[in-house]
Amino acid sequence: MIIVVGYFDLFVVHHTFSTGKTVYSQIPKKQFTKGDGGVYSGYWVLQSDDSYDIYFNDNPINLSVSTGEKIKELGKVKESVFVRIPIDKNTGSVGKKVVIVDNSSSEFVVSPSLTFRSTDGKNVFYRRTKKEFQFGLLSRD
């Protein structure tokens, strides 16, 4: 049996209680993986002083796409990019994707679904190469 795992667009809702204003944003995301349990799909959310940052593997074609209708599937993970999208804490506005790791030229591929947050707010992540398993630490100042 082959298990197919899928993750789709993320929605951001920012509500300001003092003004009653609510801002809705959509982050286009389309991931399907087969037979790997979805370890390269999923996302992380990391918090800094001024933003929430969302991290996930994405098709490099999607770096310039702003609507969910034109988005390409993740595709081959080894040809993907690991991106960060900042969300402003004060306004809820979603920033542009920033490439953190180009998986096609890297020795590893980040596995966002296999992460956990440490007690000091840093994310511990898992990655694997062809020969070994490794853990790393990602924090944003």
Describe the protein.
By secondary structure, the chain is mainly β. The protein has one domain. 0% of the residues lie in helices and 48% in strands. It is built from no helices and eleven strands. It has strands spanning 4-7, 10-16, 21-27, 31-34, 44-47, 51-58, 81-88, 98-102, 109-117, 123-128, 133-138. The strands form four sheets. It has a four-stranded antiparallel beta sheet with strand order 5-6-7-8, with no helix packed on it. It has a three-stranded antiparallel beta sheet with strand order 9-10-11, with no helix packed on it. It has a two-stranded antiparallel sheet with strand order 1-4. The protein is globular. The relative contact order is 0.18.
Q: What is the strand and helix layout of this fold?
A:
Blueprint: E1 4-7, E2 10-16, E3 21-27, E4 31-34, E5 44-47, E6 51-58, E7 81-88, E8 98-102, E9 109-117, E10 123-128, E11 133-138
Roughly how many Å apart are the termini? 43 Å
Shape, per Cα inertia axes: globular
Strand share of the residues?
over 45%
Write the H/E string, N to C.
EEEEEEEEEEE
Q: Compute the gyration radius: what is it?
A: 16 Å
Q: Please tell me the total number of domains.
A: 1
Give the fraction of residues assigned to helices. under 10%
Average pLDDT reading: 79
Count every helix, treating DSSP H or I runs of 4 or more residues as helices.
0
- What is the topology, as strand order, of the major beta sheet? 5-6-7-8
Poorly predicted regions are none
Number of strands: 11
**Which structural class do the helices and strands define?**
mainly beta
Largest sheet: 4 strands, antiparallel
